[in-house]
Amino acid sequence: MPATYTFDVFSTVDGFGSYNEDGDWGGYWSKQGPEFLDGRLTAYGEEQRLVLGANTFRQFVQLMGPSTGAIKDLDPVNTLMRNMPTTVVSTTLEGPLDWPDATLVSGDAVEVVARLKDESDVPLRSHGSLSMNRALMAAGLVDRVQLTVFPVVSGRTGAFPVFGGAADFDLELLESRVLDGHTQELTYRPTLH
User: Fold this and answer.
1) Could you give phi then psi for residue 149, rounded to 5 degrees?
2) Strand (E) or helix (H) holding 82
3) What percent of the chain has pLDDT over 90?
4) Which fold has domain 5-192?
5) In a designed cystine with 19, which of 35, 110, 115, 157 is the match (CB 3.0 to 4.6 A)?
6) How far, in Å, are 94, 121, 125, 150, 167 from residue 176 at the CA level?
7) Domain boundaries, the chain
8) Which residue would you say has higher pLDDT here, 39 or 23?
9) 3-state secondary structure of 50
């Protein structure tokens, strides 16, 4: 049976995955609380493989890479993410990668992830990597979209629309919960419309 693949993504209420240089929100739009952080520890504490596209991987290295990262004292969630077995899918990066337990795979993300799903003994999880995951959704390779919606509207400073340019999808709600009284975590099964 193929491994499950979860596209894990953060969003503002108006659909942005991050904010531009004019934004002064802080990490997690300054809305993280103990339930959110405990949920992230649980999600990333399970045995699984992280799958990242090149752009997100570059951002991760810039922020929390072992030798070049700007964040020297990582919180427990980022420590877990940094130390997970990771596959980086890229046609532009060259190794070696400045990341523990990372494997660089060159090629088309759809082909790489289809092969990973067939060969992996553990679930696959991707955080961010928006364009890669939109392509994987269109190819029917994403089993779950875990969408965490933070209670902010970033109309002026929002950057990277999470589903901008994506195909049309029907979403079956598998799970929903409210974290810390204000942040929604929604897990969907996507199917091409």
Assistant:
1) -105, 115
2) helix 76-83
3) 83
4) Dihydrofolate Reductase, subunit A (3.40.430)
5) 157
6) 39, 27, 18, 14, 23
7) 5-192
8) 39
9) strand
Token pair 């942040």: residue: 183
On whether the pTM is more than 0.85, the answer is yes
Token pair 């919606």: residue: 149
Q: 34-45 and 76-83 helices cross at what angle (nearest 10)?
A: 20
Q: Residue 72: what pLDDT?
A: 65
| Predicted local distance difference test score (pLDDT) of residue 49 | 98
* The two three-digit tokens of residue 49, written as one number: 């493989």
pLDDT tens across 75-106, in order?
888 889 999 999 999 999 998 998 999 999 99
β-strand pairing of 183-192 with 86-89 = unpaired
Report the C-alpha gap between 122 and 87 in whole angstroms: 13
Q: What proportion of the chain, given as a percentage, has pLDDT over 70?
A: 98
Nearest 5°: the CA angle 182, 183, 188 is 140
Classify residue 104 as exposed, middle or buried by CB count within 10 Å of its CB (0-12, 13-18, 19+). Answer: middle
- Kindly report the length of the chain: 193
CA distances from 35 to 11, 32, 87, 147 (A): 17, 8, 28, 16
